[in-house]
Amino acid sequence: MAPNDSAQTTEEAKDLAAGQRKAARYIVPVAVAGVAAATIGLVPALAASGDPDLPKISAQQLIEKMAASDTQQLSGTVKISTDLGLPALDGLAGSLGGGEGGDGEGSSAAPDSKLSGLATGTHTLRIAADGPDRQKVSILEDSSEYSLIHNGDEVWGYDSASNEVYHAKDDGQRDGKDGKDREAPEDLPTTPKDLADEVLKAADDTTSITVGGTSQVAGRDAYKLVVKPKQGGSTVGSITVAVDAENGVPLKFTLTPSSGGKAVIDAGFTKVDFSKPAASTFDFAPPKGAKVTEADEEAHRKAPEESEGFKGLEGFDGLNVIGEGWTSIAKIEGQGGKGLDGGKGGEGDAPPEAQQFLDALGDKVEGKFGSGTVFKTRLVNALMTDDGTVYVGAVTKDALVKAANADK
């Protein structure tokens, strides 16, 4: 019999939120194009036919099972598809000074240029983990492979297509609060667990959390935890996390938009093994003849003040959050009354590919705030007013306009 939840759900969600963040956290890039391009998603695992018959469990119990999971060793294959409703990002990435297709000086093995590619399309990843100090993620392509390896205090990125290597030292300073430059790349969500953790951290009394039945993922029995906004105006319809019934590990993450249609983000295992990976899995030495780029060289090359792609963005220095929970909207103040067009009332210094990207996403709107353009994806939307103020969040166009009107 498939489990379900009861009216306890509201209280359980409140219990879950105690001691955790009271509002969703949004990563808000200063460039509207970056809002869409930085949204990384992982997608669908293959579900087996038939739902397993598992003991009934409440949402609170399932969350506690996830929290109590001490699984630190696994390996497997993750299938990823992301549909944000975006135009192709290849030309845009090059215009903003990325590695491949950019100015030709950056390393194609740098993690940011490779992992950002997960923002669109379907991808297959092979992953392995052995505790907090050893992880490996490989993106499998038609005739090549990109691998990112963390082994102790070493971080390596390798692009077999170009035979280029990226190298960084992991000094253990993951929060940047020591004032030192952290050379290793920031953690990015590349598994269903990473994505589920972020959702549960943000859960509060604006959130409904229930158990929505059972499923099989990668041959393993799982419960389905369903997370939904209680507020209207969010672009998020629901989030479903398939949780391993035995060990509490999230096996699949699916985000469905409030507008309907296929999932925006759907990340899951097609194969998974919870035994300890071989130590050799995390070994790496640069192949003969490979070009090796050190992280500090890459960071210096991409410093914002030296990058053409960041010109005109220096004015966005004020950030405030309007609202709470799933309908939180970040307001970014622009100085000097300049928008992306540089205040010229037409095309400005943005590269042609970037301008084309923005035009493809934009809808002209008007209100008490004046006029502006709403840039749309299926998940994150942004309103840029003609005076350069940006309102951005996982909310509908109407919600953005309403927030801008109320802010005047």
Characterization of the model:
There is one protein chain. With 408 residues, the chain is α+β, with helices and mostly antiparallel strands. It has two domains: 293 residues, outer membrane lipoprotein receptor (LolB), chain A (Clam); 92 residues, no CATH class. Helices cover 19% and strands 31% of the residues. It contains ten helices and 18 strands. The strands form two sheets. The chain has a twelve-stranded mixed β-sheet. Strand 17 and strand 18 form a beta hairpin. The protein starts with 8 loop residues before the first helix and ends with a helix.
Quick overview:
The chain has 408 residues and is of the alpha+beta class.
Order of helices and strands: HHHEHHHEEEEEHEEEEEEHEEHEEEEH
**Strand proportion:** 25-35%
Major β-sheet annotation: 12 strands, mixed
Shape: globular
Helicity, as a percent range: 10-25%
Structural class given helices, strands, pairing?
alpha+beta
Q: Which stretches are low in confidence, meaning pLDDT under 50 for 5 or more residues running? A: 1-49, 89-104, 173-188, 304-317, 339-348
State the CATH topology of the largest domain: outer membrane lipoprotein receptor (LolB), chain A
CATH superfamily of the largest domain: Lipoprotein localisation LolA/LolB/LppX
- The average pLDDT score comes to 75
Q: Give the radius of gyration.
A: 22 Å
Alpha plus pi helix count: 10
For the terminal residues, how far apart are their CA atoms? 54 Å
Strand arrangement across the biggest beta sheet: 7-8-9-10-11-1-2-3-4-5-6-12
User: What is the number of independent domains?
Assistant: 2
CATH class of the largest domain: Mainly Beta
Give me the count of strands. Answer: 18
Which CATH architecture of the largest domain?
Answer: Clam
